[in-house]
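As described in the Methods, two query proteins were run sequentially through the folding procedure within a single session, without resetting any intermediate state between them. The first query and its resulting structure tokens are shown here.
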Amino acid sequence: MSETKIIPIFPLDLVLFPRQELPLRIFEPRYKQLVDDCMLGNGQFGVCLLDENNSVNGWNSPKLVGTIAKITKCTDVELDGLQLNIETIGRNSFKIKKIISPLIPQPTNYDPLSVEGHQEISEMHEKVGTGEKMYIQAEIEMIPEIDENISLEQWQKLVELWKQKTVTQALPQVVEPHALDHVLEQYYLTTETPTIDYIYSLSALGAKDPNELQPILETRNMTDLIHKVEELLTVK
């Protein structure tokens, strides 16, 4: 049986893949608390795509498969501690076994960008006790990494699918082949020795919506991964 542990969860409108970098600007009080707690601990939290069909005590709910993010740098934006810039990198993916709800419900008409919204949350936090968590937590189990290799032939097939999709979506504008190659070079996707990280990056490049990337994150073996990426990059 896999070992479980409890971690903070940060639902976002994106999918973070293992070993990808993710910079974040933190301004909401609940996520400021999350970062503070992480910096006092091992610097890790879970990044999950938003589940638009569910909520947790009024807040955005996470999808059940996400990726551990490790904070590599944390700086104040204006030296007042109210806004932070953090740099993170994806670690292993995980599956949520149990969601732990924050004690504070989302206020009606809450505006996370307003001073009034921040004050309201801070007052609610003081009433329930500042030791209570304002952010979602979850009991998770880690998902083993895919350690299979991708062949150069498989990689080249995926690249061709991406090119075909890009050309089709650009119509009636004409995209020249050299322009496509230039994009691949810009994203460091020109290689003779592809790895799983190249597949993740090409998928992100070919997706219009983060929900298209969630099934790719949830795959457990190379065969399923390539199949899901082919589905993503095939012109419907």
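Immediately afterward, the second query was submitted; its sequence and tokens are:
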Amino acid sequence: MDDRSLIAAINWNGKNFITGMIDSLLPQMRETNTRLLVFDNGSEDGSADLVEENYSSTGIVSVYRNGENIGFGKAANRILSDAGCSTVVLVNTDTVLKPGCLRNLLLSLESRPEVAFAGPRLLWPDGNLQHSRRDFPFPGRLLLEHIPLLKNRTARFSAHDKGCYTDWLIGAMMAIRVKAFNDAGGFAEEFFFFHEETDLQFRLKEIGWKVWFEPSAEVFHIEGASSSQKYGSRIYLRNIPGKLLFLEKHGKPADIISFKILMTLLQIQRVMAGRIFRKLAIADVRFTSGYCREAIQLLWYKGAS
């Protein structure tokens, strides 16, 4: 068994940004004695070739070609089942790690035996905070996120400057204790992407493990860089099926109907705002009538695409 921590990146058509991630990782992998596996999910843009040509000579970067896009959760399950080490760090290809990030994230997990899952502080490419802490997406907590006077009581809009336990973290970079991952049954493969990490962290907490937010580890994150190639400007609509599936698994019937009503009211509010403030609709597709109509279809009609 090679007990060096494994860093794994699941790649799908990431040619335009994957080298930035690897270049930021290389000195940190040498510092932490870790290795990188790029699991290529059927890319068609030559990104797997690019990684092999540029990084195979380092001796700490390898590529596995899967041949088809099987989704994030299924790919991650394959990686962790064959990892042969106690810790795996899953990192998105659309990230760039700040110096010290990998070391600090690994230490935050290793020094807390009760923690199964640790994540860094995420930043937008311009350096602004990307709110990565979240409460589990039950309707009551989601409602608070949309009430100006109360939203600071939620994990999402709280300060992200101190290490703390939290419900769940956006999975742009995840340090995972393999034993805990196996105890929880891994990622649920019915989630193709979006909210597979939410579901996993909920199940980890149900069996007694904890999730840790580590702000001393910082990562620039271009959210949805790969998946936006498939869904374009409507990528955030894919959160709706993910949240509905989460609530079907872990909530009550009342949670599902409350979520649908809450989100429908939010879409109506956005349409009205977009019509009153035309510049808002031009700047943000979520305030257009077409986007909101599609969101409502996803909420109420099974099989809506």
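Residues 253-276 form the longest helix (24 residues). We note this only descriptively and draw no conclusion about the first query from it.
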